[in-house]
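FAQ: What does a ligand-bound record look like?

Like this one, built around thymidine-5'-diphosphate:
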Amino acid sequence: MRGVFITFEGGDGAGKTTQVRLLEEWLTERGQEVVRTFEPGATPLGAEVRKLLLHGGDEIGAIDPRAEALLYAADRAQHVAQVVKPALARGAAVVQDRYIDSSLAYQGAGRVLQVDDVRRISDWAAVGLWPELTVLLDIDAETAAERRRQRGGADDRLEAEAVEFHEAVREAFRGFADADPRRFLKLDASRSIEELQQAIRARVASLLDD
Ligand code: TYD
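The answer part, i.e. the structure of the complex:
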């Protein structure tokens, strides 16, 4: 078995976690070692960074956009070095919830920073590691917000942003996918869980059987 790096992207509430879990099950059945992981927060250092980013208290106050981008990049650097690269090196499939495209969409397109600047720092943090396949679960902001409400729990700092922010993030993701169909599989996240998973498995199978 060869190492393969697959990432999932999309708005909060797109159903990434479910699809990641189902893909892990299927790959494991095929005899593939799978490392299911996520950003931000999958390493001990990253977990601390995640708390600062998403649940930082009043004493932290507003996070400057550049500081925010660098914190996501710091989480990524640690995660790539400690988890992703070692897993790929021993031939595992890394199936990951969010990666560089989230930084480009949320920090780049959704906010005041230039996408190219965010790409540069993220690429540096990841030592140039990009996924072979990125599944984009495309969902409109209203539906995503509704799903989050049904899921319950309090919105984190980014989830609480206005619908316009989530629409800008969505448009950014769609633009990335349309510009690079070789890496991306863009799917309409309003389709059923089974249909989505079938499409994902078909694409992963063709990647692995190549
Ligand atoms: P995540 O844990 O995936 O939240 P959820 O399960 O609710 O989708 O991500 C937390 C938040 O971090 C999410 O709102 C997107 C944001 N994010 C960025 O802004 N930039 C990044 O580089 C990453 C990885 C996530």
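Follow-up question: can I read anything off the structure? Yes, for example: The chain has eight helices and five strands.
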